[in-house]
Amino acid sequence: MTEFAIRAEHLGKRYRLGERETYRALRDTLTSAVSAPIRRLRSSGVGTARDNTIWALRDVSLEVAPGEVLGVIGHNGAGKSTLLKILSRITEPTEGRAEVRGRVGSLLEVGTGFHPELTGRENIFLNGAILGMKRAEIARRFDEMVAFAGVERFIDTPVKRYSSGMYLRLAFAVAAHLEPEILLVDEVLAVGDAAFQKKCLGRMSEVAREGRTVLFVSHNLPSIEKLCQRVIVVDGGRLVMQGDPVTCIAAYLGAHAEPSSGVDLASVPRLDPRLVPVYTHLELRATDGTPVSAVGSGEALEFHLSYAAAEDIQSPSFGIIVSNGMGMPLFFLQTRTQHGLWETAPSSGRVVCRLDEVPLVPGEYLLTIGCMSGERQLDLLEHVASFSVEPRDFFDSGYLPHPLNGPVLIRSEWDLREDMAFSNDQGYEVASESSDILGTPA
């Protein structure tokens, strides 16, 4: 067995703004070598165009063991996709080197490597051939892939006529079932429905159990925590942290969650291109209207959500998911739970959700907000803000449960009763009707 499946040493990728990446032939390389001295003379003493370039990746070194499942996390534009494109040999690094040992299957974008004019069947065999597989090997897994993707009726239809969901399902099925030794998966599950995401994650778990190497880029942090043995955090094109999933995810969320006293939602990129940006601003306020970023356990809190749509929203539904610091949902607040609230919402406005008491133990919590029109998802922003909960006497008892007992606080009433026991004819002790002894005087 080799010592590593993937090794990157001081990888860097620089792009010049406004310039397309070119693919060079031998003629271009020779021409560039001849003209290089002239270019250097012309550029001497003249200001460089360094401010017109950007480093998408800089000085990244890492090593992935065979059979390891490595998660890659970071905010949008951090350099995650650039790293996977270099490892997939889609783009060349500007500096450094990467060595990949094994057959690589990559799913970096929906339908990467598919030819739109070819049918689903033809694309499966084409992708397998690109991976270096024999036709018999591909045919052996063909039915399994088609069943996984659920495109049996359309397998002989050109993929240019597929919906984005069908395209995605088939692309994932091909990447995950053609037995690559190394699987590179970028954030492609964002456009799938919940059932398909669950199916994909199950397949990735199987791939990992089969001893294959997986690099998994995702904003779905609970999935990262569940699937990955190790996580790296990329920020500003640099590898800033690596280690166990729990530690890395907690550090990442703490560093990048926006302060919830006021978040400009209009400038936050939406991961799913089918979404319609509706939300424009989020603010957390106390009952007196003061913007806050922290609240005490049991205290009231208001979520102010400003929105602007192109037209009135029919059958609107506004919702907020409160999650713990690991991104695990704790509870859901939604306008639909308030019966008969609105049939139509004006094209722009502000919705306010009030919690009379925040039922959470002290800690950091994340907010995901969404908006629907009927059953259609308009807008969705995951973990777009955070807020802190500080310790307070929630139960008016002087006692606050430890966070390890669970993050949610619920008021309850307890009675203590004494069971009056007697013996039946067979000698067994049987409890009679109990008597309430709470508050009984001594």
List keywords for this structure.
442 residues, alpha+beta, Rossmann fold, Coagulation Factor XIII, Chain A, domain 1, six-stranded mixed sheet, five-stranded mixed sheet, 24 strands, 23% helix, disordered C terminus
Concise synopsis of the structure shown:
With 442 residues, the protein is α+β, with helices and mostly antiparallel strands.
The percentage of residues in β strands lies in 25-35%
Largest sheet: 6 strands, mixed
The general outline is globular
Q: List segments where confidence is low: pLDDT < 50 over at least 5 consecutive residues.
A: 43-49, 431-442
**CATH homologous superfamily title of the largest domain:** P-loop containing nucleotide triphosphate hydrolases
User: Looking across the biggest beta sheet, what order are the strands in?
Assistant: 5-6-7-3-8-9
Proportion of helical residues:
10-25%
Q: For the record, give the distance between the C-alpha atoms at the N and C termini, rounded to a whole number.
A: 76 Å
What would the average pLDDT be, to the nearest integer? 81
Please tell me how large the radius of gyration is. Answer: 28 Å
**What is the CATH T-level topology of the largest domain?**
Rossmann fold
Structure explained in plain terms:
The longest helix is centred in the N-terminal third of the chain and has 18 residues, at 26-43. β22 (421-423) and β23 form a beta hairpin. The strands form seven sheets. This protein has a six-stranded mixed beta sheet, with helices on both faces. Strands 12-20-19-15-16 form a five-stranded mixed beta sheet, with no helix packed on it. Strands 10-11-13-18 form a four-stranded antiparallel beta sheet, with no helix packed on it. It contains eight helices and 24 strands. The protein has two domains: 6-27 and 54-255, P-loop containing nucleotide triphosphate hydrolases (Rossmann fold), CATH 3.40.50; 263-390, abc- transporter (atp binding component) like domain (Coagulation Factor XIII, Chain A, domain 1, Distorted Sandwich), CATH 2.70.50. The protein has 442 residues and is of the alpha+beta class.
